[in-house]
Specification:
alpha/beta; 898 residues; 17% strand; eight-stranded parallel barrel; binds phosphoenolpyruvate; 5 domains; 47% helix; binds magnesium ion; single chain
Length: 898
Amino acid sequence: MQKFVYDFTEGNKDRKDLLGGKGANLAEMTNLELPVPPGFTITTEACKVYLESGAEPPALRDEVSAHLEALEKGMGKKLGQADDPLLVSVRSGAKFSMPGMMDTVLNIGLSDASVAGLAAQAGNERFAWDSYRRLIQMFGKTVLGVDGDLFEDALEQAKRAKGVHDDVDLDAGDLQALVDRFKAVVAKETGRDFPQDPREQMDMAVRAVFDSWNGERAKLYRRQERIPGDLGTAVNICSMVFGNLGSDSGTGVAFTRDPATGHQGVYGDYLCNAQGEDVVAGIRNTVPLAELEQLDKTSYDQLLQIMETLETHYKDLCDIEFTIERGKLWMLQTRVGKRTAAAAFRIATQLVDQGLIDEAEALQRVSGAQLAQLMFPRFDEKAKAQRIGWGIAASPGAAVGKAVFDSYTAVKWSRSGEQVILIRRETNPDDLNGMIAAEGILTSRGGKTSHAAVVARGMGKTCVCGAEELEVDTKRRRMTAPGGVVVEEGDLVSIDGSSGKVYLGRVPVVPSPVVEYFEGRMHAGADDADELVKAVHRIMAYADRVRRLRVRANADNAEDAARARRFGAQGIGLCRTEHMFLGERRELVERLILADTDSERDEALAALLPLQRADFVELFEAMDGLPVTVRLLDPPLHEFLPDITELSVRVALAEARKDANENDLRLLQAVHKLHEQNPMLGLRGVRLGLVIPGLFAMQVRAIAEAAAERRKAKGDPRVEIMIPLVGTVQELEIVREEAESVIAEAEAATGTKLDLALGTMIELPRAALTAAQIAEAAEFFSFGTNDLTQTVWGFSRDDVEASFFTAYLEKGIFGVSPFETIDKDGVGSLVRSAAEAGRATRPDLKLGVCGEHGGDPESVHFFHEVGLDYVSCSPFRIPVARLEAGRAAAQDHSSGSR
Ligand code: PEP
Ligand code: MG
């Protein structure tokens, strides 16, 4: 028969699934022989049965009775016994901590019959009536659903009537009167009397805890934190100890070390003569835990010793709740405590130094997301700032700039050197240029997956979205904050993408020391080096030592390449060449597109060749000795031509003036000809190379000649030429043949042997499905998981995130955008099978990924698992990818799977 109830002596910390976090850790502390009041845990399985069937499992009642009897026997008194009542607490405790989301009821077992017994036993009448009024209040609110304010109001009235400030100043008589008031509230609000039967109180409280799993707050919290909805909560029934027995009693919370810095010491708060929630509820001022030493040295010393035991045992920072009852210390809860990103890194290295954990374990104590947080510049905490709004922290960072309300102004102002914050109600793809130009983006609508949020994160740009209290009026170019503060176009605003806060004016920023370190401007070895930087340096060294995946950068120019190298890149995995066709060169591209004759076209190409070659020389120099993958032109050509509407208007106006420009007319024709309904599925990638004569050949020649030039300069260029958007091996074969002959020509002309590798992107389902054939013509594959995600799902990357992803996330169709984290089951399974098929054809096939997923922590673990050789990501994400690649490898070692 299934067992639904476990005594604290039966569980342990590894049984959180069944006993919940609180129950598992109470059991662990019991096993450590720490002073835990005896009790038992009703399992999450019992809760699941209740949630599914609407009733407790039939066997539960008897099982609870047996455990209750054992508890009563051990304690030498019965639940609610009139002359000496055993009281219990009933506390929720799910597998994952859900702070404040679910319910707790204390002092169960008190009744009209036993309150006097409790008073007599404790020798303290005030305490007994205080406990009873707390029971009715908590039970009334959480179990019976009575509005908590009704109790609070009555308590306030009692204090006011007596002319006192604190609840401790109410005496036994006041509290006894309050109990009557509370009972009247219950009777009036629920139509029944407060239950006097102790067991009925307990059963009702257990059921209320089960029900609280599906409370609105809990559901919302789970959705946000991506906690599955079917885990259920356990219920802990624990014999009561009392911190409200007088000045020799109290209750407190503590951390075994500082959760903000990791420093060891005494961190916590203590409140005399108080119970349960009083400490966190802020009803009276707590004292720093260190003061307990003066109040009760014995308990204080014991507490410190217990904290050390817990740290050594859990090998981590723990947080605890404790109560002192008449000078005796009791432990009510412990768990591995939450900490800031900076503390996570420091604590991990401190624990290594203490010999508590090894380097592999240290890597599991931090995450790429935490490292990313540490890399953004921040607002100076010491600065004065006027907060005018608070939205969703969508993309971290601290940005300051002049408010602008449209993309056009953002671009215009930023071109003249201004820093701007783009403020919109919400953004759409038309705002892209403005978003690129802006320091940060602020919207008043939309959530974490709104267009603004997703795009900003992709660009590594600061973003606060959904700041609903801010009224954005784009027509009048102003924003109104609560209280009537008006921000006009050009006014300075500061936004904090890590906290979601919006400030008026300029809040000073300080650069992240961690970035200073990666940039090489701060050295971890220096005596005065920042403690955090030292910790990051050590953790990165552990990661680099164990990781198998190499990390490359997506970089298109020498400057990005140099930064990537400083950040630890081991090459370039994707150089997108389209940027080499923009700016002043756009005119040459126009000439290429408009060419009527071979010679016109050749001229345009010949003009582009030296410009591209010079770009490549710089890039190869910056990455000397490391591989550089250059992708031939990918985007549809119309992207290099003027916008169809703008051009149409220009031509129409000119015609009206009888001043038509021949070139514009030809351009317009070309734009019409190249116009596509679905450009992402149109004439782009390898298709361009196949239909525009000479285009790819020119690029290959520029690359080959640049490599030759670097060789001559005694450099060590290691170049890989990559063909985008291949769907079938035939496409690749044709392009490859042409490229090989161009390379041979360049080798002959320069007298240099070049050793250029030729490979392809795998970014179409057909390419993945025919990877075995494609590998015949490719020396490497680089998975373009951006396009692969688009084409596997049939999602247009630019359109769908802004339009319906929020609805998809809310409906739980996916937990995170598949453009952010690789969809393992769909896109990922194609990556896996294509990697296997490719290697079956060509065992030394080099495999990498260059889509956005290459810098996403969860995706990096997946690419490690499927055996890719490297991931490639934007320079700023390289440290994150290095760390996560190290974590993935360390996990393998500890689970022994590789
Ligand atoms: C990709 O598709 O994953 C890729 C890297 O190419 P792009 O994003 O340039 O289309
Ligand atoms: Mg692509």
